[in-house]
Amino acid sequence: MGFQTKQQMTANLQKKFGSNLSGLQQNMGTQVKQFQDDLNKVKSTKNTIKQSRQSLKQAPSLNKPSFKVNPMRGLPFSKRIEKQYNYQTTRATIDGKPAMLQLSAMAGFKHTPRFTYGLGVAASIGLGQNWNNIRFSFEGVGLRSFASWLWQYGIGAYAGYERMYRKTVFVNKSSESIPSIELNPHNTKTFTDAILIGLTKSYRINEKWNGSIQVLYDIWWKEKGLRSPVQLRFATMKN
């Protein structure tokens, strides 16, 4: 039927590989065993990886650390300073003060990407009592301190303390008429001060400048004779 007997197969193998078939079989057996050992190692490693994945899935979620690394700490001091310029206008008051344009320049220190605090200076320029009586005049200079905390979408909280010194501190009092005012700790003949709290909304102007609109509430507005406690400011900030 065309099948070779065991003797015929042995004879053919001896012709090709020589008479030492036992050594050849032993070498082949050793190689087969080594291959099986390597295959078993691969299977063991695969099972270990599979078990590790299952353990990670079954393990409870890890708690995040209670602190966060402040990304601003790695920046030089100059990169953490935010320059800010703002202006606002106020209406004439019942005690005779004219409508005013207040300009200020402030420098804020970015403690974190969201929290900034700083100091600034301001100047007040009188505009007159109404549109029919426009008269520019120097009304005083002052100091400002502020802190802002950014939330989301450019909206944040703002708080600050300000003191504006009247022009009577810098000019000859005898030559200047002082408006009649009701003296109180927050509205004197030499200065006025304010605590402002409110909201701010920032927006992007270009790569170097951002804009901001601030809606603030003056706590001591009645003591100063203001017509409204709300102040609207427009600011520009340099990155």
Number of domains: 2
The spatial strand order of the largest sheet comes to 1-2-3-4-5-6-7-8
The description of the largest β-sheet is: 8 strands, antiparallel, barrel
Poorly predicted regions are none
What general outline do the C-alpha atoms trace? rod-shaped
What is the mean pLDDT?
82
Sequence of secondary-structure elements: HHEEEEEEEE
Number of separate strands: 8
CATH architecture of the largest domain: Beta Barrel
Helix percentage range: 10-25%
Instruction: Return the CATH class of the largest domain.
Output: Mainly Beta
- CATH topological fold name of the largest domain: Porin
Q: How many helices does DSSP assign? A: 2
The radius of gyration over CA amounts to 41 Å
Strand content: 35-45%
Give the termini distance in whole angstroms: 94 Å
Structural class: alpha+beta
